[in-house]
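Revision sheet: C-alpha cells.
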Amino acid sequence: MPVLLSVSIERWPIAGAFTIARGARTEAVVVVAELRDGPHWGRGECTPYARYGETVEGVAAAIAGLREAVANGLDREALQRVMPAGAARNALDCAFWDLEAKRSGRPVHALAKLPPPRPCVTAYTISLGSPEAMAEAAAKAAGRPLLKVKLGGEGDPARIRAVRAAAPEAELIVDANEAWTPADLAANLQACAEAGVTLVEQPLPAGADDVLAHMARPIPVCADESLHDRGSLDALSGKYDAINIKLDKAGGLTEALALAEEAERRGFALMVGCMVATSLAMAPAVLLAQRARVVDLDGPLLLARDRPEGLRYDEARVYPATRRLWG
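Predicted:
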C-alpha cells in the first residue's frame, strides 16, 4: 500500500505576546505533515521562519510537492538528498520517524540506537521589554532553575541587571538574536558576565561575526542563526564555543543527530532549542536534548493552549512524549 502524505496549516495562540529583537507575535503558525500507510500514521510539525526566507505557504507547498514521490517509495534517507535543510524537511523527516515507530512497534529512540530518554530541565523564556517589565516577568519565574533572557540592543545592560536582581538564584542564558554590534559587543558581554550569565546566543548578525574570533570572550558564546546543518560548522570554529541545534534549521531529527555528533567531535558544547510551537514539534527534540548542556524546549509553555496529548511539563522539567503524541 502506498504511503499517503497530507499537509495542514495550524494556528496556535500565544499567551500574551512573544517579543524578541525582530518583533512581537501573538500566535504560532505551524505546518504539520502526516503520513498514512493503512492502519499506521506518523506526524511531524515545523515552524516556517521568515528570517531564513521561509513562508508558511511556501513550506506547506514544498511538503505537498513530494506527495507523489512519497507514494512512489520516497523514504526518510532519500528525503535528505531531495530536500534542503529547513522547516519543510523537518516536518516530513519527523513524520517518517513517527511512521517507522508505528510500523515497527519500536520507539524512535530504539530505532535511532539511542538510550531511553529521561526528563530534562528546560529554560523558560523572558521576552524582550523594558527593564521593569522584564524584571516583573523574571520575578514570576524566579523559582525556575534556568531562564533564557531575550535582549535586543540599546539598553541591554540595564535589562540584564534588572532580570538578575529579580531572579538572583536562577541560571541565566541570554539570546541577543543578532541585535548587537561590534561597537557594543564588549560592553554587553561584560554586563552579562557581571550578572552571572553562563551563555550568550548569537550576539552579532550571522555573516558579520568575524570579530568574535579576535576577542577574549568573558563567557561562552553560542551560534544560533549562524548554524543550520553540518555544512555550517567550518565557519564557526574559533568564533563560537557552543551551537544551538534546532530541528527546523537542521531539517529534521536525522540531520540534527548527525550534527550533534560532529559538533561534539569538534569540541562545541551543545544547546538544543526550538521555535514557539506545540508539543508535537518538541517531542523529537527531547531525544536530542539528552546530550545537550543547555535545553530550551519551552515552546508549548508560551502558548495559550497545547495539544491534548502534549508533553508533560512539571515546573522546569519536560518529560519524553507518549506514543500517542509522537515516536
